Amino acid sequence: MAFTLHIHVSTLQATAVAAKHAVRTTIKSRKSARAVHKAETGGTVHASIDHPAVLDAGLKRRTALLGLALSLPLSNNCSIAAENENNDDDDDDDDGYAGDVKLPEFDDKGKVISNEEIKPFVTKTVGAASYQVPGFWSAEGDSGWKDPVLGRAVDSIEIVAIDTKLNSMTDLGRLENVKVAKSLPVPAELAKADLLGGKKQVVDGVMYYQWDLVTEPATCAPEKQIIQGQCLPEFITMLSACVIDGKLYVMTILAAAESFKFSGKSLRALRDSFSVAAA
Prior knowledge:
- By secondary structure, the chain is of the alpha+beta class.
- The protein has helices at about 10-40, 60-70, 115-120, 180-185, 255-270, and strands spanning about 1-5, 80-85, 105, 110-115, 120-125, 130-135, 140, 145, 150-155, 155-165, 195-205, 205-215, 225, 230, 235-245, 245-255, 275.
- The chain has a domain at about 115-275: Mog1/PsbP, alpha/beta/alpha sandwich (Protein Transport Mog1p, Chain A, 3-Layer(aba) Sandwich), CATH 3.40.1000.10.
- The protein contains five helices and 17 strands.
- A five-stranded antiparallel β-sheet has the order 10-16-15-12-11. It has a three-stranded antiparallel β-sheet with strand order 5-6-17. Strands 7-8-9 form a three-stranded antiparallel β-sheet.
- Residues about 1-15, about 35-60 and about 70-100 have low confidence and may be disordered.
- InterPro entries: Mog1/PsbP_a/b/a-sand (IPR016123).
- This is PsbP C-terminal domain-containing protein.
């Protein structure tokens, strides 16, 4: 017996307003804390994009709403469809998956044993660059990957290397100020993307810049809006870039926003695993 659970736009609007208020309250409290710290130490306090709040100063309302949208377990049409093949009245059994798939396993304490814990990662190499995907994923299409339970996890992975005069990613300045569409070999539409998060990491002495970007559709139906004029994002783009031996290497991961909600941890691990071997 199939059923569909619809989530109304009014619910999203109310949640968005609550999230907006929470963000403002958090920013005010952090500003107060920074003021106290500065008074006590006499030092200068700098906001960092590595903080979970992404950007303490200048966090945009639209970015907060897009982040909220990515945290909601909604499908692209604002509904969740599930099949109850056993006609069980317990809604907890409606997991939304059909067909012969391997369901999660549990230990003797009822804790889910994740696939990451019981299966190794597989390393993929593209020239001097490499990355790792979970061993339980299977290749799909030219460069996509599929989770056996959750379905398609990655739409595409692309690695590009171009000649550069940069000596390091730090030559581009602060990570949050980099205009990725102008500075990196990435799709031009990312010029309009919103920054959801970013961080820096050093691997074997090489600096890597990483971004989580989301681009919302120019227009969408009312039922696909978070609030009026604010569309639900359809895709998230994850980037990792470094400079080695006079070349700028960029890994671009494209995933559906819905995939990111459920496979975000694995997607970030995939992006973090990107590395380039020096000649």
